[in-house]
Amino acid sequence: MWNSDDLKQTLRRIDGLGYKAYKDLRGSYDFVDYTLIIDHVQGDPFASPSRVRVQVPQKAAGFPEDTYRNKSREIALRDFLTRCFNAACRGFVNGKRGIGKSGIISMDRPGQEILKRTSVFVSAQYLEARFVMGLPAFGRRIAGRHAEDMFFEELPRIVESSLFFRNLNEKELYEHIKTAEDADFLRNRLQEIGIVAFVADGAVLPRVTGIDPRPLRGENVVPFRSPESLRIEMELPNRGTITGMGIPEGVTLIVGGGYHGKSTLLSALELGVYNHIPKDGRELVVSGPSTVKIRAEDGRRIEKVDISPFITNLPFGQDTREFSTEDASGSTSQAANIIEALEVGARVLLIDEDTSATNFMIRDHRMQELVSKEREPITPFIDKVRQLYSDLGVSTILVIGGSGDYFDVADRVICMLEYRPIDMTGEARAIAEKYRAERTSEGGEHFGHITRRIPLAQSFDPSRGRREVRISPKGLQSIAFGTHNIDLGAVEQLVDTSQTRAIGDAIHYATGFMDGKKTLNEIVEEVMNAVKESGLNVLSPRPVGDYAVFRAHELAAAINRLRTLAVRQDRGNSGMG
């Protein structure tokens, strides 16, 4: 290991030389209070910035053991420090100097969710921060004096203000970690008390806009308040006693007029699989970890999915037990999305009629009379939703405003009125009794098979041009995997591009488990277990600072949307409802 003076001398020696001379900086440097590690130096000013780490001994950083004593607190602390580092970069970096990415110092930037990331690590021995620096140049010549300012003026101030306990806002730090700990505690209790989701009284569900996830503020914002019939009381380790709405297992309808908050409630439940930062409004809106949002997805590719529980007898004898298509319809895509979610262990399905295929959701009695079941391939969801619960133990929360026939299959009905939930289960049942449904159930006696599939490793090719592996996220909803693009636009529970980045590399990592025998579910479990045991670092041979944790469901969804995917079915490993 060199010392900081060695770095300064190198910067002065290469000042004004060609940009590639920056490669001489790679290595570790002792800065007394911390160690600076330059892992990778960019090839030119326009390339991805250089990858840098800082390690601070815990003896100097001074974080009390109770700030990271369990997994919830540790992840929240790492998230908090990531936010502090980002804020310090904005405060101390003088800005762009030179061409390309010159002068940048930045770290992975979190949103409203508290996610496990690779930007900061904390242990009893040391703290490590991973970030990038755009090494400055004018033209293609090294701006050594500017780089010296970055390493010896700006970076020390960033590190000192964001990675040492004594310089942080202690009250905000503890609020951050206690908020995450309470949410995890609550989420872990859901199954034990027989509910699939919880929405705390006082929660603020509306967001600023559809693309701005911050909480909406103002006098017209209505805090959530549970109906008495669904209100439960919970005791949290930090906040103490809270109350809110518990949604029981089974089939739940969310109804109400347009613009009264139905989809807003469902959206909050959709993202309740993640912890949220203090003052987000949804800090204590939690859903089970295997809650999956389902929608129609016209045009997606489907590879050998058994959609026969929903669709059979297609024209020209097309076999729906091994259904494949390059261009799925709304109904076939929604059917496949449900089966694929069940294949990897979904326990709760969230569905909004606004993003569903109408003919997949309902066939009323008049249409049944006009087009007999013998001539209709689709078994609508209304005739399968109860079997999902009775046969497979899978609950459904469904936003619906256009068909009261669903009253017949619901365990409860929550009506949103001016953003306030009202339990109208009794009224809905009375209406269902008064106006007997004239439609005939088409669902049969059981839900049907969940046929497992075995991915074939040879169908995964991450190479492009001279690169054996070329995988990169293209924003939140797309992954470039070799020469192909994986479209994740309909995978609505992704919230961070760093998740997308990690998923892309996780797909490549998953191929190591593809032996022609393991099912998709088993392969995904292998990947998730490796991440759980060894961290996200296992996905890359080099230190990466911009991964964020993902769920098995999103990894499987990405694999299923790879257009080169080839599988064979494992009919000896099928579940039966």
Short synopsis of the structure:
With about 575 residues, this protein is an alpha+beta fold.
Descriptive account of the structure:
The chain is α+β, with helices and mostly antiparallel strands and 577 residues long. Among the domains are: 2-168, no CATH class; 452-576, no CATH class. It is built from 14 helices and 28 strands. The strands form 8 sheets. Strands 1, 2, 3, 4, 5, 7 and 8 form a 7-stranded mixed sheet that branches. A hairpin with a 4-residue loop joins β2 (27-30) and β3. α3 packs across α4 (144-162) and α3 (71-92) runs antiparallel to α5. The termini are far apart. The model has no long low-confidence stretch (mean pLDDT 95).
